[in-house]
Amino acid sequence: MSNLFSLIGNTPLIDLSDLSDNPAVQIFGKLEGQNPGGSVKDRAALSMILGAWERGDLDGKSIVEATSGNTGIAMAMIAAKLRIPITLVMPENSTPERVGTMRAYGAEVILTPAEKTIEYSRELAQRMEDSGEGYVQLNQFSNEDNWKAHYRTTGPEIWRDTDGEITHFVSSMGTTGTITGTGRYLKEQSDTVQIVGVQPTDGSSIPGIRRWSPEFLPKIYDDSVVNRKIDVSQDEAIKTMRILAREAGVFAGMSSGGSTAAALRLAEELDEGLIVCIICDRGDRYLSSGAY
Question: Does domain 4-34+153-286 have CATH number 3.40.50.1100?
Answer without folding.
Answer: yes
